Amino acid sequence: MSLGDSSTPLGKVRGLGSAREGGEHWITERVTSIALLLLGTWLIASLLLLPKLDERTLVEWLHAPTGFIPMALLVIVGFRHALDGVKVTVDDYVHEPGTNFVVNTLLLFLATAGAAVALFALARIAFGVAA
Amino acid sequence: MVVSILHRATGIALSFAGLAVLTWWLFALSSGTDAYAAFAKDAQSPIGLIVLIGLTWSFFQHLLSGIRHLVMDTGAGFELGINKTFAILTIVGSILLTAALWVYLLGVVK
To answer: Which of A38, B30, B78, B106 would disulfide-bridge A124, Cβ 3.0–4.6 Å?
Structure first.
């Protein structure tokens, strides 16, 4: 405890939770999980309902707004939820503040880059010439 | 306790392998017929199928144990009997859903 024994009880507690911040991260993780419950069910249902699973059928599916929009949401919310979830694990095991910051920052870059690649691919399908 | 560990393990598998495969799939689909044929060949190889089936099971397990966690976040379901039944149901459910989906998928693709 860097603040020492002279600090007030509130002063000792603030910023010292396992996540070292308020409840927003915890809430966000649960809100995105509910969104993914819907989007994940949509993905499985879509794969079941598509007449075939060949390239042409899949491209036509994602070229249409009814395929593109939920898939874009799945990518965005999926990468966000993954980043939030992995951060909880990192915070559980990587305690040294400097290393923790480096690992979490690298994961943020990785998730952002991954989402960008997936969204680029989706945009190329949606705005390209239909198969 | 096993289900709690599975929730974290499947979450990490989905975060890295799951999102990588999703991104690879979308990128291959956007890159034309040759690129998608290469992806489909890898996906339908024995290793590819093991990875995809493993990720499908991870998805259903994480989804069901995630629902369990949301219920427990409300303060419900902590009684020993109910808690244990719910935990076992997530495993039974994830295995049944994975089996059902792949029986269907392998039937459609072949």
So the answer is: B30
Q: Round to the nearest angstrom and report the end-to-end CA distance of chain A.
A: 62
Q: Which residue of A has its CA nearest to B108?
A: A52
Number of C-beta neighbours around residue A58 at 10 A: 22
Among chain A, residues having any CB pair with chain B shorter than 8 Å are 30, 33-34, 37, 40, 44, 47-48, 52-53, 55, 58-59, 62, 71, 75, 78-79, 82-83, 85-86, 89, 114, 117-118, 120-122, 124-125, 128
Tokens, residue B72: 């427990």
Residue in the structure block whose two tokens are 């979830």 = A85
B100: pLDDT strictly greater than 50:
yes
CATH number of A20-127: 1.20.1300.10
Q: Which value does ipTM take for this structure?
A: 0.92
Q: What is the CATH number of the domain that holds B102?
A: 1.20.1300.10
